[in-house]
Every structure is written in structure tokens, then in C-alpha cells.
């Protein structure tokens, strides 16, 4: 971990309405620290930037309330990063905050600094790539842009503010990120994230606008105020004050509004025009807020914000097609009590999760995403190093003789009763001409048997051998897992089980193990069948002729021929001759079978050894290479999944 232990990740949650920043050290497991930014914003800045001649840049509320500014931008986050009115404020804002962080020295110095920004899940790869380039120019450093839904999951998992089982987070999760400009609904099932785009119009700023409209409608100088608000800057500033009044309302104990209908939040704000200023008083009682939340919104198809949120939440639940294990609320707007109440009403209290500080959840999650990515980078590098070395191959090579021996035993075991006896009876009845033809029929039957996909003979051998090998392979990956804080079980190759039934079915714990077994079994099965055929047909036919079950008959017949042509010649010649019936029937069928079975154990054991040796000799390293490739492929797949477990 040495190359990543001195790295710092800065999680930058640049929001449409508010911005928060956090940092994390890759060498530590502590929760990311939220940075108190310069100016009046503190832990969370209003997303605003202004310029003062000649070259001063202000951000947050300092930018909003400054007088005589050259430029003022508010709420400028947008996927249209190719436009100057988006790109310029983004770079001014981010560049200023980067400068402030450097000057404050809040973040410790490190050899490597990674900036991680979030983007709505609905942004496509091209937009995110263009956004990353704009941001990289602003921070003059390395930038990664990740979906905010991923940041939310990592925040829930690692920040310690949400109590939830890992199994639930790795199941089906509906991430609901309520921001100022949008509400993003993202279904995350396992590793796959799918955003729903219909919540994008449902920004909390629409509530601010409704409050602003009520304030203007009730103002005693309505006409003058409306004229003053024709100035976009003045309107944005008043809307910001309405947002702050809303936030103050939802931070207040709701019992206060229930106990006294006259209880209200009061915020004042001056609006300037050519004639001076107009004082605006923003008042929000419990009844006022109920009316605001039930006000039809043109942007929402004349639905109220409250109704639109419920509708979109229900639609998201339907389109997930699976019941979510967790509904995770993030974003500052999730503090609004009615949001929590609606979500709980739709999904149930036991599934809805909300952290202690949802307004900085994404910032912390982004820092965690960066730390996870850097650690995953080191983890994958170590796994690749392990796979590129010869430790796994050597381990397999050391165990390969045991596999070939067991394959030989599996092929030879019971061959007498399964194949030899029946074929010899047919030979005795002259249905088969020569003993070489006997060997050919046995070889063909055995080949068909071993290559039959429904026959588990080879599979059982491979399963037992592989499961005996797995603990040693898993021990090789354990140090890598421990080094990168990954549960060792996540890199453990899954054992394979064979369950017995009438037709013997192969039962496998997990999908990848199936392909592994299939690959090994197919290679072994074909190779063994080929070796058997060569052994029984070719030069290796002497194995059966001298030591196998056929040796009894061959030796008997050869004894007669030996009187004329000699023993060795008799052995060779008799295999090619269509012997007459009287010779074939010199021994009764029952006696023939009895003699074959009497020698079966010894002959089959000798055949097993010969087949195992022949198989090992003819392999040429193919099985070793295939096994090594299969193990490497499976470990690489597990490493990809294990990245999710890195914290």
C-alpha cells in the first residue's frame, strides 16, 4: 500500500444550490472530514460566484451579497458544459475554492491529490467526460467524476452515520438525492445503476419560488417589488432568502407550529431598485408551509411539489421491478419532514435511511469513492502480480499428478463389468471377429461414456481434486485481501458440489464455478478418451494384451498357437485371427465371466496406473495451462467484484 498511503482525496459536491467539500486520506479508514470553507458559508456554500474588478473572485454568500460586482452567477451547474455561461462560472467557482483550500492548509500535504466530483446519475459518459475536463482545468490536477448515487451508497456504507447491513446495500437500493435543482431517483441493484429521469424537474428550488410568489403577492408595495425583481440578480437574491427561510422552518421543532398557529419563521431582506430599497419580510407559519407544499406547479404539470414527489417515488418503485431493500435519502432537501413521511409511507419505516448530515452526504461519499478507487487500483495491481507470477501455476503443477492418477482410476474402475464381460460374450458367440475388434469396441464404448455430458465420472474426479486445491489457492489471495482491507472470503474460489440422484446431476454453488468445472471437465474428458483409445487401439494395446482383462483369453488361445509359431508370435497373431467356434467355446461362458471377474481388481488397478501415466505423458501441459487460465480468469472476476468491498 506504500504508493497509495500518501494520497489525499478531495470530494467536491458541486450542487446547483449548495456545495460541500470533504477530504480523506487513503492510508486511514476514518470518516472523511468536511471542510469549513472560507466566507459565510461554513460547511456548505451557496453555489454562487462573483467577480470584482480587477481580479477578485468571491464565492458563496460573499458573492451573493457583495455590491458593485462585475459578474454574478448563481445555480449554474448544468450538463451543458460546452456553453460559456456554464463553463466559466464552474471554473471560477471551483478554482476559487481550490485556492482557498490551499491557503487554509486544512488538507494535509500529500504526494498525490485526487479530486472527485459528483454528477447526476442521468448524465451520460460524454457529458461526464467533458465535465471532468472543465473541472481538471479549474483545479489544475487529476479529476474523476462519479455518479452521485455511488457516492450515496459509499456514504451509507462507510461514513458510520447510517446503520445498515452490507447485504442490504449490495441488494436492491433506491437512492433518492433531493437537491435544489433536481431530485434524482437511481435504482442500484448489485453493481448496476439505472437512473430514472422523470424526477429531474423536481428541484427544491420550486418550493423556494412558491414562497417567493406568496411574499410578492402579499407585499404592501407589490407593484414596486415586482418591478424591482425584473432585475434577475435581485430576484435570485430574494429567492435565496426564501430558501434560507424554508431551511430554517424545517430545522425548527414541528411541535412549536402545532402548539401555536401563530408561531412562524421570519426572515427580512432588502430589495434594491433605482429609487432605493424595499424591505421584504418573509413569514412562514405551519399553515403557510402547508399551502406552499400544496401549490400547483406549472413545471410539475400543475401538481403540487408534495404530490409530484409521491408520484415519482411510486413510479420509481414500480420501475425497479424488485422491491428495494433500502431507500436511501440524501441531499439537503431530504431534511424536509414531509419528504421523510411520504417516503416512509410508500416503503415502510424499516427501509428508509437518512444520515445525520444528509446535506454533506454526497461530499463525504465522493471522498470515499476516490479513496476506494485508489485502494482498488492497488488491489487489482497486486492481484495481477499474483496471477502473472508462477505461484498458482506451480501449485497446480504439484497437484496435477494426483489428478491424472485419479482420472486413470475413474476410467478403469468397473471396466470389466461395464464393458469387457458383455463384449467377450459377444466375441464368444462370434458376433465380434477378432480380439483386436474386442479392444476397439471397448475403446469406443469407454470413449462415449467419458464424453457423455450426463456422465459425472470425470466431473466427480475433477470436483474432488479442485476442492482439495482451492484452500491452497485461497491462501495465496488472503495476504492481498488483508493488505487492502478486503474480506478474504470475497476472493475465495467457490467449491463445487455433486448431488446424487437417479441420473446424477451436477449442482454448483455459483455460476462462475460452473464454467470452470465445464472447462476443466471437457478438456480432461476429451484427453482421457483420446488416451484410452490410443491405449486400447495403438501401441499401448499390449497393456491389455498382457496385463488387462483380455490377457486370460489371449494367453489361453496363444498357448495353442505357440506349439506351431512360438509364444510371442502367437500373441501377436491371435489378436488378428477370426478364431473358430470350437476354440472360442473351449471354456464355458460362465467360466469365462468368472475368470474375467476374478482378475478384475488386479487388472483394473494395473490399467488405471498405465492410463494415468499415459495421460500425464500425452498432456503436453495443456491441462496445466487451461487450469491456470481458468483460475486466473475467476480470480480476476472476483477481484472486480471485491472492489465494492474496499473501504
UniProtKB/TrEMBL annotation:
Alphabetical list of InterPro entries matching this protein: ATPase_NBD, Hsp_70_fam
Extract the signal peptide range. Answer: none
Keyword annotations of the record: ATP-binding, Chaperone, Membrane, Nucleotide-binding, Transmembrane, Transmembrane helix
Q: Which SUPFAM superfamilies match?
A: Actin-like ATPase domain
Coiled-coil ranges per UniProt: none
Q: Does the keyword Lipoprotein apply?
A: no
**What Pfam families does this protein's entry cite?**
HSP70 (PF00012)
Transmembrane portions of the chain: 516-537, 543-565
According to UniProt, the name of this protein is Hsp70 family protein
Q: Which organism is it from?
A: Nonomuraea insulae
Amino acid at each position: 500500500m506504500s504508493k497509495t498511503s500518501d494520497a489525499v482525496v478531495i470530494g467536491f459536491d458541486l450542487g446547483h444550490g449548495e456545495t460541500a467539500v470533504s477530504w480523506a486520506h487513503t492510508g486511514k479508514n476514518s470518516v472523511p472530514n468536511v471542510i469549513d470553507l472560507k466566507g459565510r458559508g461554513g460547511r456548505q456554500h451557496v453555489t454562487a460566484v462573483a467577480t470584482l474588478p480587477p481580479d477578485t473572485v468571491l464565492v458563496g454568500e460573499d458573492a451573493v451579497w457583495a455590491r458593485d460586482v462585475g459578474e454574478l452567477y448563481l445555480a449554474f451547474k448544468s450538463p451543458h458544459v460546452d456553453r460559456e455561461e456554464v463553463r466559466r462560472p464552474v471554473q471560477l467557482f471551483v478554482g476559487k475554492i481550490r485556492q482557498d483550500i490551499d491557503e487554509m492548509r486544512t488538507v494535509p500535504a500529500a504526494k498525490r491529490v485526487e479530486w472527485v466530483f459528483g454528477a447526476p446519475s442521468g448524465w451520460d459518459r460524454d457529458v461526464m467526460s467533458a465535465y471532468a475536463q472543465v473541472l481538471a482545468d479549474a483545479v489544475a490536477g487529476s479529476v474523476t467524476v462519479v455518479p452521485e448515487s455511488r457516492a450515496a451508497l459509499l456514504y451509507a456504507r462507510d461514513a458510520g452515520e447510517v446503520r445498515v447491513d452490507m447485504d442490504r446495500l449490495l441488494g436492491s437500493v433506491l437512492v433518492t438525492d433531493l437537491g435544489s435543482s433536481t431530485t434524482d431517483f437511481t435504482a442500484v441493484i448489485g453493481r448496476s445503476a439505472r437512473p430514472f429521469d422523470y424526477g429531474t424537474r423536481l428541484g427544491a428550488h420550486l418550493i423556494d419560488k412558491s414562497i417567493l410568489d406568496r411574499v410578492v403577492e402579499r407585499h404592501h408595495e407589490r407593484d414596486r417589488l415586482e418591478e424591482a425583481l425584473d432585475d434577475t440578480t435581485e430576484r435570485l437574491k430574494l429567492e435565496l432568502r426564501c430558501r434560507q427561510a424554508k431551511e430554517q422552518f424545517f430545522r425548527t421543532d414541528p411541535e412549536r407550529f402545532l402548539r401555536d398557529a401563530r408561531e412562524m419563521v421570519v426572515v427580512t431582506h432588502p430589495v434594491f431598485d433605482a429609487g432605493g430599497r424595499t424591505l421584504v419580510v418573509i413569514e412562514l407559519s405551519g399553515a403557510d408551509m402547508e399551502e406552499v407544499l400544496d401549490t400547483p406547479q406549472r413545471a410539475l404539470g400543475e401538481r403540487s411539489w408534495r404530490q409530484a414527489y409521491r408520484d415519482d417515488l411510486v413510479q420509481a418503485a414500480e420501475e425497479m421491478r424488485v422491491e428495494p431493500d433500502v431507500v436511501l435519502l440524501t441531499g439537503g432537501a431530504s431534511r424536509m419532514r414531509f419528504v421523510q413521511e411520504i417516503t416512509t409511507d410508500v416503503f415502510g419505516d424499516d427501509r428508509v435511511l437518512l444520515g445525520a448530515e444528509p446535506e454533506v452526504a454526497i461530499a463525504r461519499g465522493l471522498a470515499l469513492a476516490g479513496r476506494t478507487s485508489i485502494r482498488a487500483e492497488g488491489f487489482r495491481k497486486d492481484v495481477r502480480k499474483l496471477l502473472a507470477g508462477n505461484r498458482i501455476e506451480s501449485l497446480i503443477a504439484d497437484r496435477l499428478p494426483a489428478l491424472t492418477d485419479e482420472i486413470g482410476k475413474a476410467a478403469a474402475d468397473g471396466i470389466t463389468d461395464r464393458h469387457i464381460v458383455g463384449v467377450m460374450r459377444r466375441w464368444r458367440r462370434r458376433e465380434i471377429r477378432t480380439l483386436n475388434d474386442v479392444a476397439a469396441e471397448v475403446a469406443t464404448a469407454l470413449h462415449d461414456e467419458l464424453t457423455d455430458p450426463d456422465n459425472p465420472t470425470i466431473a466427480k474426479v475433477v470436483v474432488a481434486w479442485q476442492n482439495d486445491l482451492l484452500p491452497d489457492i485461497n491462501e495465496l489471495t488472503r495476504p492481498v485481501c488483508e493488505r487492502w482491507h478486503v474480506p478474504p472470503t470475497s476472493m475465495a474460489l467457490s467449491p463445487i458440489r455433486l448431488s446424487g440422484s437417479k441420473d446424477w446431476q451436477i449442482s454448483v454453488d455459483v455460476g462462475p464455478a460452473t464454467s470452470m468445472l465445464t472447462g476443466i471437465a471437457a478438456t480432461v474428458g476429451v484427453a482421457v478418451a483420446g488416451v484410452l483409445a490410443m491405449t486400447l487401439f495403438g501401441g499401448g494395446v499390449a497393456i491389455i494384451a498382457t496385463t488387462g482383462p483380455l490377457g486370460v483369453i489371449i494367453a489361453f488361445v496363444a498357448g495353442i498357437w505357440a506349439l506351431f509359431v512360438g509364444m510371442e508370435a502367437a500373441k501377436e497373431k491371435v489378436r488378428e485371427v477370426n478364431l473358430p467356434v470350437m476354440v472360442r467355446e473351449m471354456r464355458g461362458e460362465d467360466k469365462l465371466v468368472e475368470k474375467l471377474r476374478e482378475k478384475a481388481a488386479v487388472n483394473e488397478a494395473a490399467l488405471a496406473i498405465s492410463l494415468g501415466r499415459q495421460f500425464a505423458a500425452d498432456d503436453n501441459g495443456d491441462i496445466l495451462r487451461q487450469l491456470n487460465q481458468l483460475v486466473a480468469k475467476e480470480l480476476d472476476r472476483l477481484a472486480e467484484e471485491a472492489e465494492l468491498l474496499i473501504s
